[in-house]
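Appendix B. Chain record.
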Amino acid sequence: MVFLFIGSAALFGVGLSFYSKHLPNVEDIASGINGVSASKHKVNINNASIKELTKVKHITPESARRIIEYRNKKGRFHSIDELKRLLSIKAKEQVDLNRFLSVD
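Structure tokens predicted for this chain:
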């Protein structure tokens, strides 16, 4: 009986260890941005720096450079949807970007 309990506890611990390593962090899900909470602050793509843009999930340094280059050549973004064409963004990434970026 004791061995059954210890074995069950060990398997439970292994399961928790596996899930804690392979599931996304709850804080990452809640914020979506490294250090910037979507509920408190959206990053404005019309005046953000490369450093600010790269804090947003799915925006790489190369993507940030392209956003700023586009902005300098063509002017202001009118919608986040313009990024889809500029950066070849997937649908899931587009949903995330709509939550964490603005064009105000």
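Further analysis of this model is presented in Appendix C.
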